[in-house]
Amino acid sequence: MFGIGMPELLIILVIILIVFGAGKLPEIGGALGRGIRNFKKSSREPNEIDVTPTAEKKTEEKKP
């Protein structure tokens, strides 16, 4: 796939390690995982659009 083998991936990993440092890698991985999880969740959920007229919304909000 795109001509990227194991040696190339190791070089990329070493460069990332040098740029971000060992302390930041878990944070970056966690943020990336949360982003992927949120993307999958949003792609599975149906689109919900509220088409209630504004007059009805105001009366429903006033009813406790």
Q: What would your notes on this structure say?
A:
With 64 residues, this protein is an all-alpha fold. Helices cover 69% and strands 0% of the residues. The protein has 3 helices and no strands.
The radius of gyration is: 23 Å
Number of helices: 3
What's the order of the H and E elements?
HHH
Number of strands: 0
Shape: elongated
Mean pLDDT: 80
**What is the CA-CA span between the terminal residues?**
59 Å
Strand content: under 5%
Oligomerization:
single chain
Helix content: 55-70%
Q: What class, by secondary structure content?
A: mainly alpha
The largest sheet is: none
The low-confidence runs, each spanning 5 or more residues with pLDDT under 50, are none
Summarize this, please?
The chain is mainly alpha-helical and 64 residues long.
Blueprint of the fold:
Elements: H1 6-20, H2 25-44, H3 54-62
Key descriptive features of the protein:
69% helix, 64 residues
